[in-house]
Specification:
518 residues; alpha/beta; Rossmann fold; GMP Synthetase, Chain A, domain 3; 9-stranded mixed beta sheet; 14 helices; 31% helix; binds xanthosine-5'-monophosphate
Length: 518
């Protein structure tokens, strides 16, 4: 499959470049900016290379630099922001700091309107700039295609050497026609074939999985979340279902009806070996009397490892592969990039477990989603026939409700929280609010407050509602909840869950708070 290689120099929007190229129908892969461009990396499939932005300045001593080979390839090269500056700096041009940095919207004016990079783009558009350095002198052989409204070089080209450059960031949504410019590069200049689609992904992944796993058994731990469910669906579609073992461990800290829903969904996807492990007491027992958040997490994590090992030994005979729902972003965030996945870990369940480490050493880890971004996983899920409600579900942490019950976690508290959380989420769906929110959940506080129930005074639990908007969970803003909905949801909860006497709304953003309470 044709692909565009992106050299990552640490720019914040590097991943977005990959997304946009893929949206244009071409597979894009991100690698470290200073990777040696050897034959394993520069395969025939690579039709073009993009040099990303960076927080560095090219004239700093330790600024990241590409393998010099990149300047003499016989495929097109595009530099974006720092990428353009490093091309200029290393090819006889000059880059210098600006007195006044150029940030945000900047109108672009063409000087060479027939440049292939800007075909079918209006001759005036608004770009998105973010640079403190600029091209003082173009490198020999390069021509100015466009200027910014601050009269700074915005687009350059060297048609003879097939090297192109953009000072602005076409990948960010604020940049008008940014997608079109990247599509011009990938499709017209590089001539890459539009072959990236989820149907194609299933075909290719199927071939890969069959080659790797063949007739062996594969085990996947299912958490009920989107990634593991989609990974399960894909394994069932591509391999013999008799060889696919899906293990779900009920920790007692799952959401309402989670276990039933997970079983039902996986059966619909053709699961034959569904191992639903009721480990509620194995988790809740050791948690008795424990209130320290770190101690709780450790108990949950350790118990997971024990239960997993015990159950695998009980249910799976002989050797097997271990599948994980690792996403492309997990690989990039862990700093691994192409071809080097050692130590990449996905869910809290599998972090550093002896089983994962052993399987990785043996080369028996299967990661069928490792080329996909989260929204691509969702698309794939829909194609595999997984319900929209699951595919668009909010994230749920590995330790489950255990970190949403500050203080001691007991079965009774889990039951109360499960009920209240289910009402909250159902109300969000009914009101059309669920899809506007990145993550919503309830937290059961270990305090009682006074209330009146009928004619009697009562002491009920306090429930905190949380709803945040975010792109990636790294930072988050409080969801601007319509007051009417909030009031009605509060009443719905206190009317139906008698143990809860008071409902509050958490109005803390991240930072300084985290999304979860523990
Ligand atoms: P925080 O609370 O750190 O959470 O702002 C950011 C995102 O990560 C999720 N989260 C976890 N996910 N295991 C997980 O799989 C965990 O231990 C864990 N802790 C937090 C959280 O729900 C949010 O989406």
């Amino acid at each position: 499959m044709d692909k565009i290689l992106i050299l990552d120099f640490g720019g914040q929007t590097c991943q977005l470049i990959g997304r946009r190229i893929r949206e244009a129908g071409v597979y894009a892969e991100i690698i470290h900016g200073d990777c040696e461009l050897n034959d394993d990396i520069l395969t025939k499939e690579v039709k073009g290379v993009i040099l990303s932005g960076s927080p560095n300045s090219v004239y700093e001593k330790d600024s990241p630099k590409p393998d010099k080979k990149v300047y003499s390839l016989d495929i097109p090269v595009l530099g974006i922001c720092y990428g353009l500056q490093i091309i200029t700096h290393e090819n006889g041009g000059k880059v210098a700091p600006l007195e006044k940095k150029e940030y945000g919207r900047s109108a672009i004016d063409f000087t060479i309107p027939d440049s292939p990079l800007i075909q079918n783009i209006p001759d005036k558009f608004i770009s998105w700039m973010s640079h403190g350095d600029s091209l003082d002198k173009l490198a020999p052989g390069f021509e100015l295609v466009a200027m910014s409204e601050h009269k700074l070089p915005a687009i350059v080209e060297n048609r003879e050497r097939n090297i192109w450059g953009l000072q602005f960031h076409p990948e960010v949504t604020h940049c008008e026609h940014g997608n079109d410019i990247l599509a011009n590069f990938a499709l017209n200049i590089c001539g890459a074939e539009k072959s990236w689609s989820m149907d194609r992904y299933i075909e290719e992944e199927s071939a890969k999985l069959n080659k790797q796993v063949g007739d062996n058994k594969v085990l996947l731990l299912i958490s009920g979340g989107v990634d593991s469910t989609v990974a399960g669906g894909l394994l069932l579609k591509c391999l013999k279902p008799d060889n696919v073992f899906l293990m779900y461990i009920d920790t007692g800290m799952m959401r309402k009806n989670e276990t039933e829903k997970v079983s039902e969904n996986l059966k619909k996807l053709g699961a034959k070996n569904l191992l639903i492990i009721d480990a509620r007491h194995r988790f809740l027992g050791p948690l008795q009397g424990v209130t320290d958040p770190e101690a709780k997490r450790k108990i949950i994590g350790d118990t997971f490892i024990h239960v997993q090992e015990e159950e695998v030994a009980k249910h799976i005979e002989g050797d097997y592969f271990l599948a994980q729902g690792t996403l492309y972003t997990d690989l990039i965030e862990s700093g691994k990039g192409v071809g080097n996945k050692a130590g990449v870990i996905k869910s809290h369940h599998n972090v550093g477990t002896p089983l994962v480490e052993q399987k990785r050493k043996e080369g028996k880890i299967v990661e069928p989603l490792d080329m996909l971004y989260k929204d691509e996983v969702r698309k794939l899920g829909l194609l595999l026939g997984i319900e929209e409600k699951i595919v668009y579900r909010h994230p749920f942490p590995g330790p489950g409700l255990g970190i949403r019950i500050p203080g001691e976690v007991t079965e009774e508290r889990c039951d109360i929280l499960r009920e209240a959380d289910a009402i909250y989420i159902e109300e969000l769906h009914k009101r059309g609010l669920y899809s506007q929110i990145w993550q919503a959940f309830a937290v059961l506080l270990p305090v009682r407050s006074v209330g009146v129930a009928g004619d009697a005074r009562d002491y009920g639990y306090v429930l905190a509602l949380r709803a945040v908007v975010s792109h990636d969970g790294m930072t988050a803003d409080v969801f601007d909840f319509p007051t009417k909905d909030l009031l009605e949801i509060s009443s719905a909860i206190t009317n139906k869950v008698k143990e809860i006497g008071r409902v509050v709304y958490d109005i803390s953003s991240k930072p300084p708070s985290t999304i979860e309470w523990e």
